[in-house]
Amino acid sequence: MQDLTQGSITRHLVKTTGFMLFMMVFQTLYVLVDLYWVGRLGTTAVAAVGIAGNLTFVVLALTQMLGVGTTTLVSHAMGRRDPDDATLAFNQSQSLAAVTALAFLLVGLALRRPYAATQSADPETARQTAAYLAWFIPAMALQFPMAAMGSALRGVGNFKLGAIVAVATILLNIALTPMLMFGWGPARPMGVAGAAAATLVAILVGNAWLALHFRGDRVLRFARAEWRPRVAVWKRLLGIGLPAGFDFAMMAVHLFIIYAVTRPFGSAAQAGFGIGMRIVQAGFLPVVALGMSVAPIAGQNFGARIASRVRHAFRDGAVIAVGMMLLLAALCQLVPATLVRAFTTDPAAVAVGVDYLRIASWNFVASGVIFVAGSMFQAMGNTRPSIVTSLVRIVVTAIPVLVLSRMPGFQLTTIWHLGVASVWIQFALAMLLLRREFRKRLRFDGATPPAPSVGGQLAAAGRAK
């Protein structure tokens, strides 16, 4: 365990973000390399991977549900020096992850062809999307236990192991992708499906690695007796996690609407938007790493009832996020064509991608601070404000897009402009709600830390027997 309730908040943020950023740099490399190889298969393949990739936001929504709840409960327990409750929360998150993964796998495989058909601009794009999803859906199902284990590690302040495992699996994925796609070496050529198959193998390795660690961990460990579902603990996990997951679910809904609206513009338009989205996702990974660092730091200090350090975590996190996002916005304003042409030579796709990057980059600063604010809601154990802000954003974008798309002369740039406006509205609302949460929840400086939770007492009693 790393005690995040002592020492410089800024130093903790820089150190922990450094570990996460190390991992995210390789994640960025994977996203871009994967897109590069898929781009060699043509515009249709790029569009197919972009459509399939929308399900990533569904997975992110569900893994956020698990991860945020796990990190929050574990970090609170460690902040109040209650390792028994931390262990209980960890094991319960694993049982919940197993149930969720199985449900996602069954539903995803059953719906992959109808989903591909409704989102694709033409039959060939739909065929390649379905082929990719046949491997991608099992890979995403394995993200659930891996996310729960990584979140528990962050809750106790262990950022190093998660970063090492993530980097190793990303490098494995990068190496396997061209081999399986093009049939290099002993592999047979799988086309676009090879990229998803490489992801499946890499995630299998990552799960096995983390599982071996927890068999011998001194703070958190697997305990079969604590895997039996406990309604009270599941309610705590879901009560914190579901609102945070809702944010990513709304992103998925947003993307489903965009791909449905862009169908009449053809596969080149869908490919251009998909490339632009991948570039933005890659550029956002550093601020995602920052958010993943802010949550456990603020969470341990919230559990230890040190209000000033909780506020300090937000202030430093927001400043760092603004710096990161200004750099990304400058790149998208100055060299958008260069970024897009790295992945496609189709002029129509390049034009769409450039327009998207130049317009969307005006909301990057606001988005970065929103990420940090979301981490603060998680740290304080109340992620319901994230539901409100995400819902407002979707309403501001989706309803006008659905109405305007039926009118003559509708342009794709209308979607991007509405997206910018919605993010700044979300930002203003998030700041107001965060200020209210600070007033309500941070009234305990100098107070005595709370006693161990009921869950921790139950876990300790069970071990004593």
Secondary structure topology:
Elements: H1 9-39, H2 43-53, H3 55-79, H4 83-119, H5 123-141, H6 143-155, H7 160-182, H8 193-215, H9 231-262, H10 267-303, H11 307-334, H12 336-341, H13 347-360, H14 364-379, H15 384-404, H16 412-441, H17 454-464
Low-confidence parts, pLDDT < 50 over ≥5 residues? 446-465
What does the overall shape look like? globular
From the helix content, strand content and strand pairing, which structural class follows?
mainly alpha
Largest sheet: none
DSSP summary, beta strand count: 0
Separation, N- and C-terminal Cα atoms: 26 Å
Name the beta content range. under 5%
Helix content: over 70%
> What's the number of helices?
17
Backbone CA Rg: 22 Å
Explained architecture:
The protein is built from 17 helices and no strands. The radius of gyration is 22 Å and the shape is globular. By secondary structure, the chain is mainly alpha-helical. It has one domain. The model is unreliable at 446-465 (pLDDT under 50).
